[in-house]
Amino acid sequence: MSEPSEPSEPLETPGPAGAEEPAGAAGASESPESAETAETAEPQPQEPVGWLPRPADAIFGEGATAEEAYALLTVDVPPDRWIPALAAARDELGCTYFDWLSAVDEPGTGFRVCAHLAALPALRPAGGGAPVPLRRLVVRTTVPHEAPVLPTATGVYAGAAWHERETHEMFGVDFTDHPHLERLLLPDEFEGHPLRKDFVLAARVAKAWPGAKEPGESGHGGPKRRQMQPPGVPDPNEWGPLKGQLPPAPARPARGRAAAAGERPARRARTASAGSASQQQAPEAGADADAPAPPRRARRAGEGSASQRAAAPATSDEQQPAAPAPENTHTATHQLLSFDGGVRCV
Known about the structure:
The structure is a single chain. By secondary structure, the protein is α/β, with parallel strands linked by helices. β3 (97-106) and β4 (110-119) form a beta hairpin. The chain has helices at residues 23-40, 56-60, 82-91, 160-171, 203-206, 258-261; strands at residues 65-69, 72-76, 97-106, 110-119, 135-143, 149-151, 174-176, 335-337, 343-345. The model is unreliable at 1-5, 7-11, 13-30 and 329-339 (pLDDT under 50).
């Protein structure tokens, strides 16, 4: 009886020819890892801009960017870094002078709130050296139109209280924890925020202008000029309580004979030899009207005009009249003006 043979190793089944793993498969398997690596890669550090001693994000916090143009340094920060950025500008950069605070309505973006600060020049630095020039800084942030809210900057710059009140009533930006966020310039019954881009200046639409400011508005029947809408005032026939109820503006009537034909007549062409209308002679009776006009009379410059031409010169047979003999010059009478205003003879 024969001994049982040892189990043989499993044979590898050869695959079809050319079924090697493509090179792209390895790359495809590595693509998610490379994408995660790109996402987790740290951003490159920023460089100092302008007169900043360090990068903007190192001074004002994460998300801060800086740019300089026309000797003005501008730093943009997120809304949650608004107060820390102002404090850093005052404490680290020496911007102790608060100039103004306002906003700009950017359609599709939001309200861009700006604060203009300055570091006053030091004529005699404490440590010696050259005088420090004036340095200006604008700190900006953007709040959405749906929720325009920012913390008040009065804790950093007390002078911002007046500017925040004006920005609140002109743009509708709320500054939380403001000591007295009330109206500053507008009356209490005013509705809306006039410096927003969506605010319509409807004064000339809802109420007629008092007095006769334009010709024809006084009702005396005079001609009326074409009215020009000032900036921000829409057409009353397109916006307002009289929308679609007013007749279209009349077109300016044509002048002269063109009013009937609707077109301006062509300008009559005339050559230089034909002369002007006053120089053309009227046609004689019985003459052909279609006959060409006689040529214009030519005259040399030496002949002069009709008023400058003298009488015909005398012939050689005629004698010229003798000129009268002059009187004795020694006995001529001269009139001199005397000192007393009279006339005396010498």
